[in-house]
Design a protein that fits this description.
- With 452 residues, the chain is an all-alpha fold.
- The protein has one domain (15-451): Amino acid/polyamine transporter I (Up-down Bundle).
- The chain contains 18 helices and no strands.
- The longest helix has 34 residues, at 310-343.
- The radius of gyration is 21 Å and the shape is globular.
- It binds phenylalanine (PHE).
Amino acid sequence: MVQQSESKHGMWSSRLMFIFAAAGSAVGLGNIWRFPYLAGENGGGAFVLAYLACIALIGLPILISEILLGRAGRQSPINAMVQLADVSKVSRNWQVIGWMGALAGFMILSFYAVIAGWAMAYVLEMMSGRFVGVDPAQAAASFETFISDPAQVVAWQTGFMILTIAIAARGVGRGLEVTVRYLMPALFFLLVALVIYSGVTSGRFVDGLAFLFQPDFERFDSSSLITAMGQAFFTLSLGMGAIMAYGAYMPKGSSIVGTAATIAVLDTSVALMSGLVIFPLVFANGLESSAGPGLMFITLPIAFGQMTGGQVFGTAFFVLVSFAAITSSISLLEPAVAWVVEKTSLGRVKAASLVGGVAWLLGLGSALSFNLGADWTLPNGFNFFDTMDYVSNNILLPLGGILIAVFAGWRLSGETLQEQMQEDQGALILWRFLTRYLAPVGVLIVFIVTIF
Ligand code: PHE
């Protein structure tokens, strides 16, 4: 197949901008909010170890596969899969990868906007100075009061979604790229400053480090294993086509393996650094590391409230979280937006509004899970938010990942593969082994261990 050199949706202006965009997608609430609380709930170091193994052995080969398939197809994941299936002379049913991905994208974006809304609300809360000198009970009460007010939570969720739609509507070059070009470097510097600040003011940097790297297998069980794997997919934005969609806009002529490795290293460092901001503060203030989704919102305000400069740094922290969330949410929207643009006569503005609107509607269920709908639970106690999170991250993403690995490793035409991996001949054999065998089998084993 002679590859198209451009996508009709636009292109990243350079390889670096692709790295910014993909790292922008990867780095998000998953790193700053979700990773620390999951590590806290699942025994710290043991969880981190499983997570790192999943990133290197399963995540990285699939990340490479998604970029490769996206760049070869140059369209929305659904249409790219149709085209690649044709070129490779295999069944068009492989487009299910695109459809399942779109479904997972809707589910993730729906609750993502709710949590991102909390983070935006906390920018103002921190700025207001109301946390100066609070004790743990007051901070917890504050958070409870906030999330129990459906009007506030929905208002912030709506605001965040409108922002996401507005950026997506402006398109790849003027919307997505402009956003990541400024926010990604800002985020990185802010995070480094916060690690230093947290370590110095709490004096507990080493305890944070120990918590993250000394395995405690007591709190780690088989459900921790699937959680670690789900988190690896979630944090790298894998298994749902986000990276495939971004890969479609990547210029030709640069190494995919090197690019993917850079993205994975950036993403993992941000997760670990977030842990190094949060845990020293948690330990210095005698807080509970296993506080769950509220960890960031309860413990950090207490810690910032007691430290010099806490009001400024606390505000900066939640600005950082909001930035990170927005550069991820635009990538959750992109696969479906690109597909609507390709399939209909709607332009990007209408397509983004439509797709974002549906995700917003679904998100109301998660917004209400913490207040009016707290009792709408499944027999296992999961509320709407828990269900969306579990099904998308622990089931749909890994399943999508298996299919992507099998397609890229076994089914994709050799010619297309060679064309995309021209710059990566040295790594081809290792990638192929990991993608054909280790990644799909690894995911299956985790599924099986979890079920039994
Ligand atoms: N990777 C993002 C995060 O860590 C979330 C995400 C998942 C984005 C899937 C796109 C696709 O916050």
